[in-house]
## 1
Amino acid sequence: MDFFNTLILLLDSTVRLSVPLLLAALAGLYSERSGVFDIGLEGKMLAGAFAAGAAAAVTASAWAGLGAAIMVSVFLALVHGFASITHRGNQIVSGVAINFIAAGSTIILGQAWFRQGGRTPSLPADGRFGAIELPFADAVRDVPILGPIYAELLSGHSLLVYAAFLLVPFTWWVLFRTRFGLRLRAVGENPAAVDTAGISVSWLRYRAVICTGILTGMAGSYLALAQNAGFVKDMTAGRGFIALAALIFAKWKPVPVMFACLLFGFLDAFAIRIQGTPLPLIGQVPVQFMQALPYILTVVLLAGFIGKAIPPRAGGVPYVKER
Amino acid sequence: MSAPYAKLPAWADYGLIPLINLCVAFLVAGLVVMLVGENPFRAAAILVEGALGRGQNIAYTLYYATSFIFTGLAVAVAFHCSLFNIGGEGQAYVGGLGVAVVCLAFDSILPWWVVFPLAVAGAALFGAAWAFIPAYFQARRGSHIVITTIMFNFIAASLMVYLLVNVLKPATSQAPQTRTFLEGGQLPKLNFVLEALGFSVRSAPFNLSFLLALLAAFLVWVLIWRTRLGYEIRMRGFSPKAARYAGVSDTKIVIVAMLISGALAGMMALNPVMGDQNRLQIDFVTGAGFVGIAVALMGRSHPAGIVPAAILFGMLYQGGAELAFEMPNISRDMIVIIQGLVILFAGALEHMFRPSVQAAIATLSPRAVGAEARQGEGG
């Protein structure tokens, strides 16, 4: 029973840790499926987290925080779009630039506005997305096995957690069952064909990067308003890149993206849990190895040792209309 | 990095457009300064004064610039092969391990001038080794080098923390760093050069690796524009298909270009590790690998552009430190914003002002554009 309880706690923190990855990876999915590579997920998420923390601190409303986060990261997404769609600049370079601009300006503005060493003030309960208890969670808590699963694992997360997991089937539906989704995927594979059909490649790609902005804004809000009570400097700590890794790991498909994020979240939760305790058979695993594992797995995958990750064919290539 | 745009006179292409891009980047940075309630002109004045005002400051500026020359060259060599090496940060970090291993092994038995070439080799070897795996996967397995080098930055960070905490840290010490190198592992300072020019330098970490950086810049120029290998690298950069048709092995050229790039990034570690701190510390690279991207873009991947661009970023780093003293609202992170803006305007948006510049030049002197275009086709 003790083992079972530990497992539930471990899975519970897996869910919490994988949500920002999931939101960011789904964000990247829209953009990259439309043929716009985005390594600026990290920066947009960070800027979103800062905007969420700052707006929620000023207005004491979590929803205002979420709105501000989405606005700021959509703005950065549009900058990326302006550079890589309108001006046909290098998408990688533009993503790198956005990461730096976000990293620097969140610290500078945070220090200038709140004077707490780059963090935003601690948020009151109203300024955060609190835990939502699912109905009957307390009543079934004592039922063996299923009780703890329902009461601990499924219930008691914030709104954004449920939203993130609902966005997985939604994204699948948008991509594979709507006209917009069909065109979005087509523009990532063969923009010339889409253009020939009389559909604007630029406008489609712009809409895709706007979706990316909205989702990275949500990912940032989750970090600042649900997981923590406010923004802390450099709080994304590389999660945008792990999300990118998860996206590649899942071969740019929504449902596998969820499992990849859960896997990386589990690795993280597991690393925190086993810190300092030796494992059977293997002995003591260094924390650093566990931290590096998502990156190592991604490299191994990219090298084609676990299946093959084939990116959208037109990814990274600016579209030039023939003249 | 090819530009499918109309030809411009060379002075506009290599002088005017980068200058316009840089000015716009600083203009936007000025807006950020205004947003935090400070006067951008006063900030700029403090920054320049802090970077060049006294001998001491110049020495620091050149110390930072040394690191950026190495990382800028590293990014540039890969750019010429149309590879984007974002892994300079990790390669430099692992390169530091090479420097430390050499210094720890020989610092008590050999003088610095024997240890130095060994340390250069160690840094280059370790940096190149760290670039080799992504290069190999790109060349043979087709995995995107941008993603793998990003991943390798994180893996390098974890690996180095592990090594410093568990292997390299002396048993008696708490801090995760190696022991301090003895005299054999310390590079001589170059402050006397500045003093000979009439500046007074109390103590600054400006050291011999600056000269090595200048030498590396010259050698990169020779390599890229005056050797067969450089020609093949550039050919692969312009058109992989043409290179293959001309009999250049794609695998070989990708791996070689990345090895050179990684070696240059690794050599950056000499400057802080052997030249200044005289020990290997956690996070000693502090973003220099990423600054290299901005430096290479600003310097148009040419050593003659990279050296001044690196010195400019050295000024920003040193002047930024002074600025943080004078204006408490502006911390050193302002540099990170400027760096991002330079990458954005000189890199991703490099063509934004091209049409208007071209129109302006065409109006002022139609012959310049037309004549150059014909010449360009010939060359």
## 2
Amino acid sequence: MNKQADLYIEESNEVYDALVVGSGVSGGWAAKELCERGLKTLMLERGRVVEHQKDYHTEGKGVWQYPNRMKVDNLLLEEQYKIQQQCYAFHDGTKHFFGNDKDLPYSTEEGTKFSWIRANQLGGKSLLWHRQSYRFSNYDFEANKLDGHGNDWPIRYKDIAPWYSHVEKHAGISGNYDGLDQLPDSEFLPPFDFTKPELSIQKKFAELFPDRPMVMGRTAHLSKATELHLSQGRVTCQARNECQKGCSFGAYFSTQSSTLPAAAKTGNLHIAANSVVHSLIYDESSKRVTGVRVIDNETLKPREYYAKMVFLCASTLGSTQILLNSTSKSFPNGLANSSGVLGHYLMDHNYNAGAFGFVKGFEDEFYSGRRPTGIYIPNFQFEPKRYKKGYQRGYALAGGSGRANWQQMSRGKGIGADFKHQLTQAGTWFFNLQAQGEMLPRYENQVSLHPTKKDKWGIPQLHINCQWSDNEKAMMADAEATAKDMLIKAGLENVSSYNSIEGGPPGLAIHEVGTARMGHNAKDSVLNQFNQSHDIANLFVTDGSSFCSSAVVNPSLTFMALTARAVDYAVKEMKAGRI
Amino acid sequence: MKKHILDTAVNKRQFMQGLAVLMGAGVSAQLMSGQALASALSYQAESDSTNQALTLFTEKQMQCLHDICAQVLPQTDTPSAAQLGVHGFIDHQLSVCFSKEQQQQAIAIVEKIKQMAMSHWQKSYVELTAKQQILLLQQIEAQQAGFDEQDGAAFSLLKSLIVYGYFTTEIGATQVLAYQAVPGGFKGSIPYASVGKSYGSLAYY
């Protein structure tokens, strides 16, 4: 990255061409696209600076080098990470990239729970995501219209397809060209390998369930770095699968490895870290936002930044919280909220059911490396005529195989040398499927500002009221039975299944979307088809809050494409004098 | 974010229950869910951890735990769990990452082992012959000779800690097992014989 010396700023009275609030997947893309179009851009990040490579201090450490061998001290969990510890990726090597629950309180409606996973530092959740990358299909964009849930997406697949291609080439997405309408292909780097047991199960599934093809999981890892990636200082993935500690190879997509260097290279980027956005500044006479009010993360002192245009990319709940807290004469219930839907239609994905079993044979087979992805069976109930009885929409099944290891066999019976030897050997092959279900958009699933409680920056806390509906419950019951049936029919042994929806509240898929949705109509949506506020022409919101439905696939690739598309539109509008 | 294979606590718990079906053992997810408040003392693996300050066990219990470690994972062509200081690790790990109930469970089974050695052979556990020490541990697993289901569960917890402590030492992870710090890419099919053992390098522990 050049221009490093003046990359980071603190105070500034300059009126930037654009402000980008947030530095995660969406914020990084907004900054890159704005800067590359020549706009002087200021990126605001509420947390500290995390420098690529330099600040990945747990990367490459052996498990024995951690005082608690990767487990986290109970006292710390209790005091600071009550919620964050629920994330599968939370451990002693990653905890510094998670938010501190003590400083980031929120409330939930009585009788409901929501696990809000936070990553407040430069790079945001782009450092922590599992990097699964899938395009929405046209079926996904049509679903609301066809079955009547939520509002109609104001875009269709053809509108976003070129932008998927645009972001994929830069980010680097591995996968196989599968030619499926329900899961459109990306611009792919080569797919990761299947294991032999997976190939055998894939073949059986193809015979037994021809409508449920099993493909290799598509992921933002450089399975084979291109010239473009090498020129970005990124190399081929080494299959460590320790991505959330940080990857100095830059072999995956994160803000630090991919979008930030591209933005910085233009010389148009500045970053103000430790800038907790309190609210947007709105000018009643021009009906434009003119900047943001910020509270310093550390000193708690207020300051302001100004720009001709604002991109909110502060995460689904982060962006909505900022809008709700930006009240004015014209917008007493939150900025850009003339429709009244701001905060409503919160969704996540439902990961609460699955099945697993053991695979006979293949004792001579093994794998080398830790694959950063798994197998994937795309949603096979992707249009109304394929819906099952009892619920609407569908789910994907993700999973993978492996050989049981010493940790999983640690409670087996035996004392002495034979037991020890057994633990040093790879055990039986296993294979699992986990449902990833769509959650319907429902008005009742809402976030609002708490009437009295505030955080340490003086910002009203978010109050979350979100629950699974009967539709999600029926879907998980079916997903459990279906996954189990598939494994049994494919010949797996000791097949077990689970459905944890009663103890598994929304939030933990970390795919929260909705709450500032797009739409055709200013009366029932916050944003138009270009993620531009219906009410305020120079305000764009391009993160997950803009979603009209959750679909089934992981959302981050769509954050990228929507953001790049919105910037392209915004800059054209600006040049035409309409912003 | 994508969770697959064993990435989520739920999945892992379910998987361990699946292993219980396969292996007939009382497998649970206790290793995953330590909750208690406890002091945080950094543990540094040493060749003999009996000399370091104890946080949970008494010195007598520690000597007994040393021998339990030595019998569960004995010295072969690789060191024993006791030689790698796993008893010291257990004292530390239980006090920092496990619940009060689990701590008490672990202490109770060590105490019971001491008592049963005395009542069977009128000797302390550390004075028993290797055969006697092994027999006693086998009796816990078989829930015989005065050991009940509760003892079996407590020993299972202790054993999971011995195994975890052993294979997460540098020697355990890198010499006893195959360790790939930087695998250089993923290959979905290689002959098992080319590695010949399980991996000590995991994405998630």
## 3
Amino acid sequence: MSVSSETASQRPPGLTSSGPASAGGGGKRRRLRVGPQGYLLGVFVLVALVGSWTSEFFFTVRNLENIAVAASVVAVLGIAQFIVVVTRGIDLSVGSVAALATVVAAVLLRQGQGVLVTVVVTLVACAFCGLINGLLIVYARIAPFVATLAMLSIARGVAFLVQVGTLIVISNETFLDIFGGRTGSVPNVVIIALVVTLVAAFVMRFTPLGRRLYALGGNPEAARLSGLPVKRDQVMAYVTSGLLAGLAGLMLAGRLSQGSSLVGAGYELDSIAATVVGGTSLFGGTGDPISTVLGALIIGMIGNIMNLAGIQSEPQLIIRGLVILVAVFLTSGGGIQRIRAAFSKLRRGGKSGADGGGPTPAPAPPEPVPAAGGSDLSAEPRPTPPHDTTEGTR
Amino acid sequence: MSTSTAGPALRAVGLTKRYPGVTALADVDLDVHAGRILSLSGANGAGKSTLVKILSGAERPDEGRIWVDGEEVHLTSPHAARQAGIYTIYQELSLVPSMSVVENIFLDDFATGLLVRRSKLEAKAEALMERLGVDVDVRAAVNTLPLAKQQLVEIAKALKSEPRVLLLDEPTTTLPPRDVNHLLELMRDLARSGVGLIFISHRLDEVTDVCDEVDVLRDGRRVGHFDTIPPHHDIVRAMVGDRLENSLSAAVAEGAEGTLGGVATDEVVLRVRDLTDGHRLSPFSFDLRRGEVLAVTGLLGAGQTELTECLFGMRETVSGTVEMEGRKVRVRSPREAIGVGLGLIPEDRKSQGLVLDMSASKNMTLASLGSFTRMGVLDHVRESRHARGQVDELAIKCSSVNQTARTMSGGNQQKLLLARWLTKNSKVLVLAEPTRGVDVAAKEEIYRLIRAYLRRGGAAVVVTSEVAEAALCDRVMVLSGGRVVAEATHQEIRSQQQDLLTHLR
């Protein structure tokens, strides 16, 4: 956990291009919380800049739309993931549940059900998957990782069975219009993702439920002893996750005009990557939906840029992995503080002036051992490691 | 301080350890003789654990020297301490649960050895376990054994290296009585075989039963040494010190200000009858009146924690009734407890009380989100206005109400929790060790706030292992072995002081 960084990140002076000047003594007005989010925005802008240098096509309407459409499904799944991760959980089943959603929707439509019925039944089915996850985790005390891993397998298996045979083509025009079409010039999936993002952001920030979820993830025991309905909330988180995974499935079905038990494989990892790149700690209690969506967009942009640059898919995987690591290091690993401390140490240490130009910090802080605490306030530099030794004897 | 001919197995002189802001250990001398068992006694925070850490090599003293069998040693690491012949067994065992008894006993040797002759080790292990008088399959995985036997495996592991001094840090706390007796018997055997033992236990019966000498620590100093075993209350008196006397005389001198309470009315707010968990806690009853503060005290492990948990619905109760303002209520969960008007300031603020990454204001409103919600939406403006009001009222030091709880001091964190229940308008507060780990100034401040709370018509139960703190309250309940063994009013405490102390065991 970013324990040490948390204390140090009270007022981060800007390192990247975004201007987080407002942090300290701002007035009573609505305040943009600029912490890790500020850096995230910086990374976002940076990636976009790299994109525009890489290809002249990057900043075309068409390309940006591609990015947005591709990212919208990941964004919705990312929010599904976020809501669970914020409670210290994880949901590995989001991809499978999304696949299940495509199949259920396709089957219902093939049977001639109306779009409304289809959508409602699909979402309820997926929320039910989430409910089972939640009940297993809260009442059967199965670790979230395991319970949702099982659901990953089960949901996909059920999708196979429901599907009976290969993929099912969706031909219902209304359905395809809603989930595959566009309103004005904006693709509907983008609108859906946007709405989901805003609603989630609102819920997390302005409703008691959101507050309770943060508290639950931040300190479950404190939440319980404060009288919060922790069990119910935890189950709710998984139900919501399932519901949103179902919605993402509908978006996929609309885009692909088919239901297939094979779609969505690997999406669970993409959703986790989006959350984590968005600065959410897997230990719960932190992060926000908008950052998660930014994370999804960053990952999407990087893939797009590499496509534009004609990089083959295998190296792409490697680069993507590296970029995720760097982004996470910067946003949540306390990386900024360490790099800054390392720089200031360098500067103190001798003539390093030449190095000042690069804002893209190649993440090589040599030995950040004394750096983290060595800034200004923390007391007693030397006798720091007393507790570690005792811990080791357990 | 002359060196006698048959010197002690372990001699420490002038051990001092300072942490930022506190001196945990000040100039402590210690002699452990071969063949004798020394008790290390002291209340919480007396410096016992620091001393253990130093002797086990986990921490280095700032000053002081240590000799083993007349030879000076430098305990730079746990390994070095064992090399020197000092072996520490912690309350939490350091066994690998899934490995067998043999493997655990010889775990350190696996670090260097290449090939292991299993049969040879097994024979050795069996011999060791036999010496301890235990019948156990040495090939069995440790986690299949009962706790008492696991502990013996740990001791066997220690004996393998033939220690001069064996330090047992609260080995009996988690054991059932029968196994405790066996362990004490074993300790005597070990002593007879020439090992010097240091024994730490909160149960004075065990201390007086098994030990030959007693050292008492208080506030980081050695305040008493008994060459023979004294009566219980002499040990307790040394542990508690003049503080009880001092706080009592202070109370008299300052009038009501020296007490926490003094504003009790006749109206009973909380009536508890025969509440019990049917297990660790015998049925207990009390009436708490508006404005009254009741102390529940006892040595560590006497049942205070269980009592707190029963009151607040964290522990299942099998019988008994609770009435709040004359109405019978059921408290089966913290949620229900809060619903009927209780509030808990838990012993461990950080792990049980606060959401550390949340702001001060959010921590204050956590239990009363409903009253800051309008049409399903949190009213942030009203929330921070309320929080600022609390900050002013309780004199909480913070840069703004948005400061994260993690970055605030212990006393201020404590105040946040108090603010949480003031916000909730709780009628009865349960405070577990309210002043543990806060400095003197913060302590006074917290007392002041409790007084203010009582004066506004609240009532409080203070669960504390500090006798001096308990003596400040309107009434004191003394627990021992999960049973209420004594009760006294504030006025009676003074005359019955001696009596109360004897109950502390």
